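Quick start: what a row looks like.
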Amino acid sequence: MAQKLVIKVTAGADAPERCSQAFTVAAVAAASGVEVSLWLTGESAWFALPGKAAEFTLPHAAPLPELMEAVSASGGITLCSQCAARRSIGEEDVLDGVRIAGAQVFVSEIMADGTQALVY
């Protein structure tokens, strides 16, 4: 099993099933003891803001706030710096525990030994 799993989610409310799948896989991995790094990019960037995850609904899917909480407990959530800038989101705007970082940090994470990466 991978020591760390990096998941980049590019979808938000524009592709709800793909979005939900990414968050679900991240939360299940975290619950299984895997260190998870969840990257919010593209339309999923909005979920870094307070209250936005609670607005997302998909029948038969776990609520995003619960999934995000599970990931935060065992790993971390990162908002893409370019995605944040394009949406005028600053560090003062995001949920506690969400960091803003760029491609250099993403590449560093996925290149580490024992790391697996998924993109949704």
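That is the whole record. The chain has one domain: 4-119. Helices lie at 16-31, 52-55, 64-74, 81-86, 103-110.
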